[in-house]
Amino acid sequence: MKIAVCVKQIPDPATPYALDPASHFVVRPAEQVLDDTDRYGIELGLQLAEATGGTVTLFSMSPAGNLQGIRQALAMGADKAVVVNDPSLRGSGALVTARVLAAAIAREQADLVITGTESTDGYAGVVPQMIAELLDLPALTFARKVTLDGTSLKVERQTTGGFDVVETALPALVSVTSGAVEPRYPTFKGIMQAKQKPVDQPTAADLGLDSASVGIVGSGQAITGVHPAPERSGGVKVRDEGEAHLEIVKLLERVKVI
Amino acid sequence: MRYFVFAEETDGKPSSIALEMLTKARSLGGEVAAFAVGAGSASLFAALGAHGASTVHHLDPGDALPAAAAAAALAGLVGPGDVVLFGLTQTDRDVAGRLAARAGVPVLSNAVDVKVAGTTVSVVNEILGGTTLVETAFTGPGPHLIVVRPKSFTAEAGPAAIPRVDAVAPPPAGRSGLARITARHTEESQGPSLADAAVIVSGGRGLGSAEKFALVGELAGLLGAAVGATRAVVDSGWVPYSMQVGQTGKTVKPTVYIACAISGAMQHLVGMKDSATIIAINKDEEAPIFGIADLGIVGDVHQVLPKLIAALKAR
Lengths: 258, 315
Known about the structure:
By secondary structure, chain A is of the alpha/beta class.
């Protein structure tokens, strides 16, 4: 079975993000990291590949930089990666991202496409559904548990008030939530092997997408203003010396909760 | 301008975000329609009508996961110049993504406001943990697809109005439409829901274990409050996802929000920072949560919470 897992390299969330003052886009350093929420999809892909004798290929669209984040994903055990790396893609919106990823995945004829539910830096949260529509695949989205029996895929799909059991036959797309599986830690051997694994880096043109349909021009949107949000000032801080809970009681009385 | 508001049916009622978006669309002027997905009922259509829909397009997907059919049907209804509003919920996002891909138009997500000036439609986003507002306009002809964060608008019923209801036959949705729902489970806990509660008590991983998290539930019980949690707590499996507050969970705006052992990661803050009064208990004096708390207790939640619970019980 051929499994495609979509992953994203993002600026390290532990460091403050900066906006480019001219374009208003997030500044992307050469050293980006794997979006932590992608580790669940990678883990699921690896488990299913191990159970079926399949392969896992990573798909990503981003300024490639030094591929640090992709190597982190390969170190977990994925076989290879396709990173669409093309300066003309800068400023692409969700739909262009989905078109690029779908075109790359279509070349590999995947039986199962696995994604997260949204990226940590952009969080539009609609790219998986777009990929599914572009590839004409059923999408079992927001899966918190996934089981595969032959070509029958079954998931527990998170809903506002609980979960639904949703089923379909492969080929299909599944988007997994954080916590769906327990991601493995890369082994030393895995980290060493990741350096040698193939990383294909096609351009948008290689995938049949012309430059007018990608990037800022192809995305149909323009940032028209950036302003600081009204600040909420911090209030009173009390160090607990054993009686601080009484401050909470007083405040709850004042706002008439008790 | 024509507005279409996606309205998923949950427990026989329209989603609360649908009523919020209808109220907003009504305030923008123009023709407002709802696209209702579910079994449908006279009372549900009436609620949509009272909040601003003059027409309800109704699709009953049966046991199909509805996104593929809903997107196909919507693609036949909407056109250039139209504004289509979705909520930041699972099914709404599924339909918005599929419709965007089908119609070849962008979707602007996570909107906290929608602005219309002449034929220009733009949205406002909060980025960098809510410290910066970004306005983004559609530059193409549309339809303009927008995904709105819950609680960005307040739902208000107008005068009762019975909308025209057009039944929509599920169009063929190809392989995309093959997914089926074979069972439905509700996990909503007892007591008030996060969406409606005036008081919310939330816990973070600093509580240490699922057993210790019970303190949060005990305090909530005494205050008639709903229980919330951070993503870390949900990922750890202590509580179900339906209790998650934050970017990838629920957005809440209660009168009082009590954050217990929550450091205040951006992903959590964006879901609760607009609460009227915020109380935080955390042992790390530098925790970001104190930056927005009206009352911050620097202390061990395992000391403070039991005393607070005892004090409330003694009243």
